[in-house]
Design a protein that fits this description.
This protein is of the alpha/beta class and 248 residues long. The chain is 37% helix and 22% strand. The chain folds into two domains: 24-143, Rossmann fold (3-Layer(aba) Sandwich), CATH 3.40.50.2300; 152-245, Winged helix-like DNA-binding domain superfamily/Winged helix DNA-binding domain (Arc Repressor Mutant, subunit A, Orthogonal Bundle), CATH 1.10.10.10. The protein is globular.
Length: 248
């Protein structure tokens, strides 16, 4: 999916798909007042919105509606949000997912993210926050045309292709989620430079987490498992300063 932007009066430039059609978002929560409010905010962005109050209903709608992003409550009356996501992924959809969770424990966040979710907000949240996070997810999932003539970035034996969204280390393909890809791209565009958690949050999540830097640590650990596992490490922690990518 690629996106383009045109000006409107909402939260910054309007995001649409490359063909000009509206971005489709599925909102899944069993609180009707919440889905109504979110629908209103997202429609204000110019997006097409469908809602579901239960997990199975969400799966039915997702197969027919083919959303570009899903806002998904973890606690649902029939099957939980993690199961919904697993089934969506099993159907072959890599749709970015923003989890809503009333639980603020790190374990729940890690469970959601490892299940294939891309981001999360904890209740209570502001509508602006949800919209900002979704805009970030949609931008990151977009197969946008690269700025440079050569879409490939290479650091040592690691290569990232900005057009095809493929990553290779020493010729071996590495599968990354949209968020992992964006994090790696930021690191690779700044080799041998220490990037602070605040810089990474601002660039990769396009949103001020209010100090929730733990999400950076979680994603750095995901990347290490995929990029560095069984190889000379390229992602380095600079204690008290941040992270740096350098050739092995």
């Amino acid at each position: 999916m690629s996106t383009r932007e045109s000006t409107h009066t909402g939260h910054g430039p309007r995001l649409t798909k490359a063909d000009g059609s509206a971005i489709r978002v599925l909102v899944v929560d069993d609180e009707p007042t919440l889905t109504d409010l979110l629908s209103m905010a997202l429609r204000y962005e110019g997006w097409a919105v469908r809602t579901a109050g239960e997990g199975r209903q969400a799966l039915t709608i997702a197969r027919e509606f083919r959303p570009d992003a899903i806002v998904l409550d973890i606690m649902l009356p029939d099957i939980d949000g993690l199961q919904v996501l697993q089934r969506v992924r099993a159907d072959g959809y890599e749709t970015p997912v923003l989890f809503l969770t009333a639980k603020d424990s790190l374990d729940d966040r890690i469970a959601g993210l490892t299940a294939g979710g891309d981001d999360y907000v904890t209740k209570p949240f502001s509508l602006e926050e949800v919209v900002a996070r979704l805009r970030g997810l949609i931008r990151r999932s977009a197969l946008a045309v690269a700025d440079s003539t050569d879409p490939r970035i290479t650091v040592g034996d690691l290569t990232l292709d900005e057009d095809s969204y493929e990553v290779f280390r020493d010729g071996e393909a590495i599968e990354l989620t949209a968020t992992e890809f964006e994090l790696l791209r930021f690191l690779m565009r700044n080799p041998r430079r220490v990037l602070s958690k605040a810089q990474i949050l601002d660039r990769v999540w396009s949103y001020d987490f209010g100090g929730k830097s733990s999400v950076v640590e979680i994603y750095i650990s995901y990347l290490r498992k995929k990029i560095d596992a069984g190889r000379e490490p390229m992602i380095h922690t600079v204690r008290g300063a941040g992270y740096m990518l350098k050739t092995a």
